[in-house]
Amino acid sequence: MTLVKIVDVTPRDGLQDATGYVPVADKVALTRDLFQAGIHAIEVASFVHPRWVPLLADGEAVLSQLQDLPGELIALAPNLKGVERAIAAGANTVTLVVSASESHNKANLNRSRDETLSQLTEATRRAHEAGLKVRGAISTAFECPFEGVVPINSVAFIAERYCDMGVDELGIADTLGTATPIQVKERVCVVQSIAPKIPLALHLHDRLGWGLANVAMAYEHGVRIFESAVGGLGGCPYAPGAAGNLDTEKLVTFFQAQGLASHIDISQLPGIRQRLLNVIAQQLAPPN
Amino acid sequence: MTLVKIVDVTPRDGLQDATGYVPVADKVALTRDLFQAGIHAIEVASFVHPRWVPLLADGEAVLSQLQDLPGELIALAPNLKGVERAIAAGANTVTLVVSASESHNKANLNRSRDETLSQLTEATRRAHEAGLKVRGAISTAFECPFEGVVPINSVAFIAERYCDMGVDELGIADTLGTATPIQVKERVCVVQSIAPKIPLALHLHDRLGWGLANVAMAYEHGVRIFESAVGGLGGCPYAPGAAGNLDTEKLVTFFQAQGLASHIDISQLPGIRQRLLNVIAQQLAPPN
After folding, report:
1. Assign residue A259 a region: left if phi > 0, alpha if psi is -120 to 50, beta otherwise?
2. Which residue of A44, A187, A267, B285 is most buried, as measured by CB atoms within 10 A?
3. Region label for A59, one of left (φ > 0), alpha (ψ between -120 and 50) or beta (otherwise)
4. Number of independent structural domains in chain B
């Protein structure tokens, strides 16, 4: 049976754009629920400066309560300082981020791609030294909210730089949710030609209902790692118009119908979604 | 630019399961609207015995009012008698139908696959003699409502028989709407290996939201003809649980985002959908 790996990004990406703050205990419970259902790679924290995404200032607290979980505890880290915090907090995997488009990188990280990349070499070295796995994510790998369709060469350029750093996994993200299967194919193939031995992940949003078509095309061309979020939650605060992430339940259902991802107990997913929606609803309810 | 052909099946397949009867004038107007929008292959009539699908007893009347239309006017014909009627009525293309599964063929056509196929050889000869194009459709090419997943060999068997008859086009139909991309790939590839030079059409239903994923996979493996219906209307009266057809607007939007099917004026499609829904709504309204 062919292995498909689901990376659930709900505790971090899914909730960073939420209307209210989700308490640490609920993020921890959500992560444990996902792990229990068979999803063993979960993005739980972000170590961007809390000034930028205040809702995610609890990365250390979340990770401290998950240290017994024998899975991939992923933390987003935009720079060396973020990596240091992720190491100290007990993440075992960091996801670095660079946008393929300059404007989005500046909006998202407040510096140029070159400045970002030059920091990340040291960040990767440091993470590896501490025994962490390093994922190199390429944001706006399809369309940029400010620049439009992103040239494939920009994606290739970032992929090459990540390769030079020695990352363990690459990822391309359809930040806006406008990717089409033909674009997925061309971008997946170019990254794979640059880094044939580095596993490649795909992060999709589902704005136009094309998410699963993109998944199918990526799978056909060798991608085996897919990111998704419970209830399709999430969106990028620095990408106006971005829709939610690809829905975990929808993705797993789709794979299981094809004999894939059968290690996940899909019967647990509706309950996980409902519990999370209840938590969010509590934040939205007016105070008594 | 790669050619993609949309076959809109609304006037026949889309409306055969409608709650009320749609008048001939409205079917004719719908067909002309679709043609005007750039969809030049339209399934307009069915010549099954009117006892079985009374709503479609008007095939002759519909076709008689479309004789000036320089497009592909397609009529469904289940047997030799149906082909004779299609010829007499002025269709220029007939779609023959056999189910890959025996039970569905009996439910749909009231006879066995072998009996059906033996009639269709003569039907094909007769249609060709009269200058018509012949399409050979394989129903339940994925799952049968009575037998479950249909063995791929059953699909191959029907495709081979159609080839022996000399049909001009082949088609495989996901009658129930349960097909997955991996199944689409394997079934498309087996039919293409049997008939590499005969154009292959795909007829999808969209019950589970996997329609476009299946389209993407079929396109990737060389399929260039896709059937759809306005508003996702339609379903098979002899396939309990079948959902509507793949939606024409959704399909064209998806293709155009990829630089395909640009000969279709998508701006006309919402109006066509609305006019048709108004017609159907009139049938549903209680009499004064």
Report:
1. left
2. A44
3. alpha
4. 1
How big is the A-B interface in CB pairs under 8 Å? 58
User: What is the Cα–Cα distance from A24 to A107, expressed in whole angstroms?
Assistant: 27
Q: Flag whether B63 is in a domain.
A: yes
Please give the residue range of the domain that contains residue A170. Answer: 5-284
pLDDT, one tens digit per residue, over B215-260 is 999 999 999 999 999 999 886 656 665 578 999 999 999 999 999 9
Which amino acid, one-letter code, is at B59?
G
- Distance (Å, whole) CA A167 – CA A138: 12
A103 touches chain B (CB under 8 A): no
Residues of B in contact with A257 (CB under 8 A): 178, 180, 208, 210
Residue B75 lies in a domain: yes
What CATH number has the domain bearing residue A161? 3.20.20.70
What is the ipTM metric for this complex? Answer: 0.86
Q: Is B215 an 8 Å CB contact of chain A? A: yes
Q: Do A212 and B213 touch (CB under 8 A)?
A: yes
d(CA B52, CA B104): 15
Query: With contact defined as beta carbons under 8 Å apart, do B109 and B143 qualify?
Result: no
Q: How many Cβ atoms from other residues are within 10 Å of residue B131's Cβ?
A: 8
Residue B288 lies in a domain: no
Q: For residue A124, what are the CA distances in angstroms to A48, A81, A84, A108? A: 16, 11, 10, 20
In the structure, what pLDDT confidence band is assigned to residue A236 with cuts at 50, 70 and 90?
Answer: low
Q: Are strands A133-139 and A169-173 parallel, antiparallel or unpaired?
A: parallel
DSSP tag of A150:
P
User: Cβ neighbours of residue B210 under 8 Å, at least 6 residues apart?
Assistant: A212, A254, A257, B179, B180, B181
Specify whether A236 is catalytic. Answer: yes
The span from the CA of A137 to the CA of A171, in Å, is 4
Q: Which of A14-23, A132-141, A189-198, B100-109 is the least confident region?
A: A14-23
Is the minimum CB–CB distance between A173 and chain B shorter than 8 Å?
Answer: no
- Domain contains B263: yes
Nearest to B174 by CA among B234, B107, B87: B234
DSSP A43-82: EEEE-S-TTT-GGGTTHHHHHHT-TT--SEEEEE-SSHHH
Pairing status of strand A72-76 against strand A143-144: unpaired
Provide the token pair at A182.
Answer: 């033909």
Of A183, A208, A215, which has the smallest distance from its Cβ to B213's Cβ? A215
Burial of B232 from C-beta contacts in 10 A (0-12 / 13-18 / 19+): buried
